[in-house]
Design goal:
Length: about 230
């Protein structure tokens, strides 16, 4: 089909799953539309019909996606893989689309949230210009705020994202490939005494339903609710 801005806007989502609308030119270029209405430019290439995500519409325009598809086809033809000019945010869109296909919905959602909320200051920057200290400055600030666990989760999300970017040749290597993770080893200031645990145990008998069993199970195993 002939893709224009008007046709891309009007592409209807499928009743379930995803639908691929193939463009006339360039070969293999098209738009993948999800059941929820998300539209993503992709390029299908190679004997194994590999899908390469270019970017999400309208974050990336049809003209930009078309040009990127032609560049990718040229590199595939020549056997070259050069890092391309792409912002953190656009690479993140491609990463999110891939994670949704590979991870559980809750895992994909949480990883996207960590990257969009905590690294928002980097979204407009060129991915190739981002250095390790710009990532660790953000996670260090989270540690100083007393949110050590959040700092660790945010760092892990960034580590996974940047490794993906290197694999897609958006960058040569991840800037934090060898960077030490934020520590999350802060001892608790206090634990419940045996007498206090007994009090909680007996109080649990008065709770409704399975809540009593859950509380007792947590006491016996020493685990947290989550």
């Amino acid at each position: 089909m002939r893709l224009t801005d008007i046709t891309v806007k009007s592409l209807a989502p499928p009743d379930r799953g995803q639908k691929f609308y193939r463009a006339d030119q360039p070969k293999g270029f098209g738009v993948r539309v999800s059941q929820g209405g998300t539209k993503t430019f992709v390029l299908v290439h190679g004997i194994d019909r590999k899908f390469t995500t270019i970017g999400r519409y309208p974050v990336i325009s049809l003209q930009e996606a078309n040009g990127e598809a032609k560049r990718l086809l040229a590199e595939i033809t020549l056997g070259k893989h050069r890092p391309k000019v792409i912002t953190f945010e656009r690479a993140l869109d491609a990463f999110v689309d891939t994670r949704k296909e590979k991870n559980r919905p809750k895992t994909a959602y949480e990883t996207e949230r960590l990257l969009r909320v905590n690294f928002k200051a980097l979204h407009s920057k060129q991915l190739a210009d981002i250095r390790a200290h710009q990532i660790t400055d953000i996670t260090d600030a989270l540690v100083k705020k007393g949110t050590r666990s959040l700092a660790l989760h945010a760092f892990n999300a960034a580590h996974t994202f940047l490794r993906f970017c290197a694999q897609r040749h958006y960058i040569d290597t991840s800037p934090i490939a060898d960077t030490e993770k934020p520590t999350n080893n802060r001892p608790r200031e206090r634990v419940l005494s045996d007498d206090e645990l007994c009090t909680v145990w007996h109080a649990a008998d008065e709770l409704d339903g399975h809540i009593s069993d859950i509380v007792k199970l947590l006491i016996l195993t020493g685990q947290r609710r989550s």
